[in-house]
Structure formats: C-alpha cells, structure tokens
Amino acid sequence: MDQIQVYCPEFNQKDNIENVLTAQANQNVIYKCSHCYFTKRNIETSKG
C-alpha cells in the first residue's frame, strides 16, 4: 500500500503523513516538518 505524502508549506519537502502529523485528544492536529521543523498547531479536523 502506498504511503500518503504531505508537503511542508515552508520547506516544500514531502514526507509520509505518519511522520509529520500528531493527533491530539481534542480532535486537533499538530503538523511538524521532519526536515526544517516548521510547526503548525491546532489544525482543526472535520470532527473538531
């Protein structure tokens, strides 16, 4: 099965989704680039 790739909005480098996204208990998500360490917090999901 193919891995879903996510592009960093700052570095424009792609990585596997499980390496860059962290789900929080309050239904928000944290994105952290594994290359440049750009972080975006409190990304709302369709459930949150």
Describe this structure in words.
This protein has 48 residues and is mostly beta strands. 8% of the residues lie in helices and 42% in strands. The chain has one helix spanning 17-20, and strands spanning 5-7, 14-16, 21-23, 28-32, 39-44. Strand 1 (5-7) and strand 2 (14-16) form a beta hairpin. It is globular. The mean pLDDT is 88.
Show the helix and strand layout.
Layout: E1 5-7, E2 14-16, H1 17-20, E3 21-23, E4 28-32, E5 39-44
Antiparallel strand pairs: 1-2, 3-4, 4-5
Rounded mean pLDDT score: 88
Shape call:
globular
- Kindly provide the radius of gyration, computed on alpha-carbon positions and rounded to a whole number of angstroms: 11 Å
The biggest sheet, with number of strands, parallel, antiparallel or mixed sense and barrel status, is:
3 strands, antiparallel
Order of helices and strands: EEHEEE
Q: Which structural category fits the helices and strands?
A: mainly beta
Strand content: 35-45%
- What's the N-to-C terminus distance? 28 Å
Low-confidence stretches: none
Helical stretch tally: 1
Across the major sheet, the strand order is 3-4-5
Q: What is the number of strand segments?
A: 5
User: What share of the residues lie within helices?
Assistant: under 10%
